[in-house]
Every structure is written in C-alpha cells, then in structure tokens.
C-alpha cells in the first residue's frame, strides 16, 4: 500500500504544490467541457444540453472505478482516503438551497471560478456572492448550530448503508450512469 | 467522439464495473501464505493443535505485549513445531522471513495479514457503527464474543464523533 | 502559441468527463482527498473575520473549523482553486475562448443578470455550508467514494435545480 503518496501529516509545501497542479487539471477539464458557461450549465435543467450530467457522471464513474481497482490490487489504501462526511438533515436542506442557488446563479462554485477566469463578469459576481454568503452564513450559523451538527453519520458509505459489497455498489453506479447516458442522448436528439 | 468509440467506451466501462461486482470487496484478497487476524483468533480459541505462533519483533516489543501463546521467532527452533506456523510483526511480515522459515521446517508457514495492528483493530477492538442495520449488529455479535474472549473491548462508534476530525481532511 | 480567432468548439463531454475523473483519481492517489471549491471561500471568509473580529470567528462553527493549523490562508482548497483559475484560463486561451462579457440570455438585462448571479452565489454558499460541500466536494468527490452524503446531496440538489428551473423559465429562456 503506497498511495496516498502524501498522506495526512506530509510536508505542507508538497501537499499545496499538489493542490495547485490538481487544480490546474480540474480547471482545464471543466473549461474544455464548456462548463464555464452559465448558459451551457443551465441548459441541463431545461433538457436542452445535458453536458453537466455527462461530465459529472463520467468523471464520477472514472474516479470510482479507479479507486476500487487500485484498492483491490493493494495500490491505494482506501482507509487513508477522506470520505466527505454525511449529515442527513443539513444535507437535505443544503441540497435544496444549493440547487435553487445554482439555477439563480447559472453556475456552481467550481464552474463560476472557471467562468470568472475566462473573462465572464457574471462568473465574478457569482464568486462575490459565494464569498459574501460565506460571511453571512458563518456569522449566523451559531443560531442554527444544533441543526448544523444534527443527524451526523461521519464518513458513511453506501456499501455500509445497504449492507452489500463495495464492488456491487460500484457495478450498480456504472449501470445507473450508462442508463443515464443513454437517456441523455435520446433527450438531446429529441430537443434538436 | 464517434458512435463507435462511445459504444466501445460504454462496453469497457460496463465490463470493468461488472468485474467489480464479481470481485466484491474493495480490499485485496489475502495472499496464499497469509491468514486473516479473525481466522487466526478462531484457531487460537478452538485451541487448534500443532499451531505455532511466532513473533518476529524485538525482545522489548515482545515483552510489552504479544499474541496469546506466541513465542519469539529468534528464540525458537520452528522446525519441530506442529504443522502450522503463523509468523507476525507490527505490520505485514516480509515474505523473506516466511521463506527462511519454510526452508527450516516442513510445516505450513503463514503470515498474519496486517500484523499486530490488524489483530488489535479486528480482533481486540472491533468497531460497530452506531447506525448499523439489524443484520450488521447480529453479525457483529460473533466478533464481539471473540473480542471479549481475548480480553478486548468491542466498541460502538458514535457516528457524530467522526465530525470532529482534523480539519485538513475536510472536503469542500 | 497564438489563439485562434473563432472560438473552438467544446470538447466531447464524455472525454472531458473521463479527464476530470482522472484528475480526481490523481487527487485521491496523491493526497488522499478529493477536489472542492466552496471550502476555499469559507476558509478565506474565516481568515478575514478572524482579522477583524477574532471572537466572532472563534464562536462560529463554520469559521472556527478553518482557524486551526495551518491557518485559513494556507487552506488546501484555496490553493487548488487558484489552480482551477489558471487551468481554466489556459484552456480557454488555447481555444480562443477568453472573452470579457456578461453571459446572459438576450431577454435578461445585464444588471439583472449580475444581481441574480450574486444572489445565487449567496444561496449556494449557505447550501454548501449546510451540506459540507458543493458540486465538487460533496457530489463529485463524495459520489466517487460512494459517500451517502454525497449521493444524497447530488440527488436533492439536482431535483431542486429542476424544480426551480421550471419556476425561473422566464429568466433563462
């Protein structure tokens, strides 16, 4: 088990250098896909152009299969990979708020950064909004702290929730994604 | 991308995903000469005959704590000890250590997968998630019984605990 | 390299998606964590508040989280997001897509577009705080690691976006 190559406690400079390089790749791929364009992102939700779904799910599936097989061959220690925590209640509420904000703004935080970096002023305003929103939320969050920390499940994964092998969930996600791609292609052909 | 390329990509993804379902666990399978901590614990509990457990660590580490019934590798002549020899260290034992033992002895030589660390995590102090299902709880009972037999403590994890992790690992 | 005059077409979404997935996988392999975006804003806000009103910052469950080692100004996600901007600019430059403009439907006044962009940003920030991540940190990273929260957020955010899209049809048509 060699990977992660820079686990927790690795030199900060090396970790931050990796952050910069990975960020460049992330931004490059998002821009190539066209997700720095608010109209292209929003088109997803009017069934006109389903690039958001295609990019998100093909990235998710690629990384998921990579993680599974690297771990399976003993090349990646899954226990050392941080799984974002689950807070059921706050994530339900946050998901609704985020989804609404996504349509109002036309961009999500990552793609807004791409949009701003490629000259779009609306992207800059989304970033300003997010920054202001962080101030606001951070300052009033104390009043909602009980809700904010409720229904905590820590690092909780679907194989634990459904009590099935990891590989079975991986296969199910692949089937789901391929079905979604097939439907997306059909919808786009119909929309044209 | 052409339709043909898309079909090939889709089929390859389907195949790699399907193989994941066949593989099941995300953990690598044990090597042929490895034994899992829980299996070794079962053997020790049923007092399997002609089983010899060898500690490949230093004398100090051995004195500070070792597996029940284990002897130091350096002190023992493994050659005439039973027909199964299990050798362990803090983590995985080098395959070379096991090979050396095999040259001296006709016994089946196995390495404890994950070493003493796995013994502690899986046998002595197994953890049950607070949000586990009834089936998961039931299966955990067997592990808990094994843990108590060896003087360990089965633990229940309050899932909220994980929320207080170090910040550097937090995602977005 | 000189940029072509007419912007090049965007890449195939599946190819771009697989490339993005490989970057995410590289993040898991290199540093044992995924990608993100909203956390960069949270840590920067935390650092700013800590300069002006340290008590307020320490008392906030959101800001306090970013004030430990190595401090809010050396947050991993902030550095990563600087990389995102560089990578995006590089890609757009090579394809002749860098253009200063306010991207909007023709029926939407520029000032209104900017106001909505700002307001939507505020809403997304609040949502991302509650969800402990945004599309990148929770949906993509959590989703790839089969996190329950990631899939929950992905499903709810997509569903909510579709509902609000039908309510805001006039804005984006």
Automatic annotation (TrEMBL), chain A:
Coiled coil: none annotated. It comes from the Bacteria. The keyword Membrane applies. Keywords: Membrane, Transmembrane, Transmembrane helix. The chain crosses the membrane at residues 12-30, 51-71, 91-117, 124-144, 164-184. InterPro entries: Sulf_transp_TsuA/YedE. The keyword Transmembrane applies. Pfam families: Sulf_transp. This is YeeE/YedE family protein. It comes from Tahibacter soli. The lineage of its organism: Bacteria, Pseudomonadati, Pseudomonadota, Gammaproteobacteria, Lysobacterales.
TrEMBL record, chain B:
It comes from the Bacteria. Keywords: Signal. PROSITE patterns: RHODANESE_1, RHODANESE_3. Residues 151-172 are annotated as: Disordered. GO terms for molecular function: thiosulfate-cyanide sulfurtransferase activity. InterPro entries: Rhodanese-like_dom, Rhodanese-like_dom_sf, Thiosulphate_STrfase_CS. Residues 47-128 form the Rhodanese domain. Residues 1-20 form the signal peptide. This is Rhodanese-like domain-containing protein.
TrEMBL record, chain C:
It is a multi-pass membrane protein. One of its GO terms (cellular component) is plasma membrane. It is found in: Cell inner membrane. The chain crosses the membrane at residues 73-92, 113-131, 143-168. The keyword Secreted does not apply. Pfam families: Sulf_transp (PF04143). Keywords: Cell inner membrane, Cell membrane, Membrane, Transmembrane, Transmembrane helix, Transport. Its main location: membrane. InterPro entries: Sulf_transp_TsuA/YedE. Signal peptide: none annotated. Belongs to the TsuA/YedE (TC 9.B.102) family. This is YeeE/YedE family protein.
């Amino acid at each position: 088990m060699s990977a992660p190559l820079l686990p927790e406690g690795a030199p900060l400079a090396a970790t931050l250098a990796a952050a910069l390089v990975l960020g460049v790749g992330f931004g490059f791929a998002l821009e190539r896909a066209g997700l720095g364009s608010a109209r292209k992102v929003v088109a997803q939700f009017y069934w006109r152009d389903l690039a958001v779904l295609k990019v998100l799910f093909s990235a998710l599936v690629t990384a998921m299969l990579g993680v599974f097989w690297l771990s399976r061959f003993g090349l990646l220690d899954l226990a050392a990979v941080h799984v974002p925590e689950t807070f059921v209640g706050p994530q339900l509420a946050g998901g609704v708020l985020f989804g609404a904000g996504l349509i109002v703004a036309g961009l999500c935080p990552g793609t807004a950064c791409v949009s701003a970096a490629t000259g779009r002023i609306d992207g800059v305003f989304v970033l300003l909004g997010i920054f202001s929103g962080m101030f606001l939320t951070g300052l009033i969050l104390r009043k909602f702290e009980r809700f904010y920390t409720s229904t905590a499940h820590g690092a909780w994964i679907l194989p634990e929730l459904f009590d099935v092998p990891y590989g079975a969930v991986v296969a199910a996600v692949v089937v789901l994604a391929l079905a979604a791609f097939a439907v997306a292609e059909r919808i786009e052909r119909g929309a044209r | 991308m052409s339709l043909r390329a898309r079909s090939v990509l889709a089929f390859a993804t389907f195949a790699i995903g399907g193989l994941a379902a066949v593989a099941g666990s995300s953990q690598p399978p044990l090597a042929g000469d490895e034994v899992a901590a829980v299996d070794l614990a079962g053997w020790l509990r049923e007092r399997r005959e002609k089983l010899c457990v060898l500690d490949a660590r230093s004398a100090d580490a051995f004195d500070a704590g070792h597996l029940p019934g284990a002897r130091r590798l350096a002190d023992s002549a493994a050659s005439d000890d039973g027909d199964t020899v299990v050798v362990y260290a803090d983590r995985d034992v080098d395959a070379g250590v096991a090979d050396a033992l095999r040259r001296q002895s006709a016994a089946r030589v196995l390495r404890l997968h994950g070493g003493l660390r796995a013994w502690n995590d899986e046998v002595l102090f197994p953890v049950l998630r607070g949000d586990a299902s009834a089936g998961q709880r039931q299966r955990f009972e067997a592990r808990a019984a094994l843990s108590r037999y060896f003087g360990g403590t089965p633990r229940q994890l309050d899932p909220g605990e994980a929320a207080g992790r170090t910040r550097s690992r937090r995602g977005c | 390299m000189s940029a072509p005059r007419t912007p090049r077409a965007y890449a195939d979404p599946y190819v771009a998606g697989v490339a993005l997935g490989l970057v995410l996988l590289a993040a898991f392999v290199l540093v044992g964590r995924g990608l993100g975006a909203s956390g960069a804003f949270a840590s920067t806000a935390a650092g700013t508040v800590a300069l002006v009103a340290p008590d307020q910052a320490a008392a906030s469950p959101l800001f306090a989280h970013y004030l430990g080692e190595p401090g809010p100004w050396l947050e991993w996600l902030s550095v990563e997001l600087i990389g995102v901007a560089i990578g995006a600019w590089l890609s757009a430059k090579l394809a002749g897509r860098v253009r200063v403009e306010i991207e909007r439907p023709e029926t939407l006044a520029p000032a209104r577009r900017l106001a909505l962009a700002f307001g939507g940003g505020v809403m997304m920030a609040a949502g991302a705080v509650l969800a402990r991540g945004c599309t990148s940190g929770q949906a993509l990273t959590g989703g790839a690691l089969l996190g329950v929260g990631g899939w929950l957020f992905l499903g709810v955010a997509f569903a909510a976006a579709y509902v609000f899209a039908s309510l805001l049809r006039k804005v984006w048509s």
